[in-house]
Amino acid sequence: MNDSRTRLDKINTRIKNNPVLSLLIAVSTLVIGLSTFTNATRNLMDLLSGAEQRPAINGVWQAQVIYDWPNANYQENFNFAGSDTQLYGSATFTGSQNGILEGEITGDTLRFITKTPESLGSGPIQEAIHRYQGKMAGDEIKFVMQTEGGYSAHVPVEFTATRTGNPELQPAPN
Hints:
The protein has two helices and nine strands. By secondary structure, the chain is α+β, with helices and mostly antiparallel strands. It has helices at residues 7-17, 19-48, and strands spanning 59-66, 73-81, 86-93, 96-99, 101-106, 109-118, 126-137, 140-149, 157-163. A hairpin with a 6-residue loop joins strand 1 and strand 2 (73-81). The chain is elongated, with a radius of gyration of 29 Å.
C-alpha cells in the first residue's frame, strides 16, 4: 500500500495525537510571544503610572558665587544637556569653563563634578575636584559645591543658580 502523506503531514498527525507535545508547543509559543512584548509593556506601564520624568534642566543657568577666599565673587555659568538620568555640559569655576563629569539626575536632585588645575608659585600643578549637588525647584537650583584636592582646604559653598532665557530657545545638544 502506498502512503501519499508528506513528511509534514506525518509530523502534524503525531503532534495532534500527543496532547503533552501539543501543550508544550502552545506554552512555548505563548512564552515567546509575551517575552517579545515585555519591554514595550513595561514602558507603557511606566508612562501610564506617571513615572518620574526628568526635570526641564537642559539649557543655560547663571549664579553669583562667593567662594571661601577673600574677594572671590564670580558670576558662574552652567550649560546643562542630557536625557533621562544623564547630565553633561559645562560649568565655569572662577570664570573658567570646565566639562561636567559623572553627571546624573535623580528626581529633582542633580550631581556632577568638574576638575581644574591649581598652582602655587613655581610648584607642580595639582588637580582640584569640585563636587556639585543641586536641588531644582522651578527656575532655580540650590547648589552646594565642595572642593577637594589642590593646595588648600575649602569649606562647602552654597549658591542658587537661575535659568537664563527661555529653555525652549536654548541650543540643542549635539
